[in-house]
Amino acid sequence: MQFDELKKLYDLPFFDLIQRSRKVHEANWPENEVQLCTLLSIKTGGCSEDCSYCAQSARYTTTVEAERLMEKDEVMERAQHALDNGSTRFCMGAAWKGVRDGTKRFDQVLDIVESVSELGMEVCTTLGELGEIEAQKLKEAGVTAYNHNIDTSPEHYKNIVSTHTFQDRLNTLRHVQDAGMAVCSGGILGLGETTDDRIKMLEILSNFNPQPESVPINSLVPIPGTPMAESQGVDSFEVVRMIAIARIAIPNAKVRLSAGRKQMSEELQTLCFFAGANSIFYGDKLLTTGNPQSQADLNLLEKLGLEPQKPNRGKDSPEAEDTRPREPALA
Question: Which candidate in 3, 108, 206, 216 could, as Cys together with 249 as Cys, close a disulfide (CB 3.0–4.6 Å)?
Answer without folding.
Answer: 206
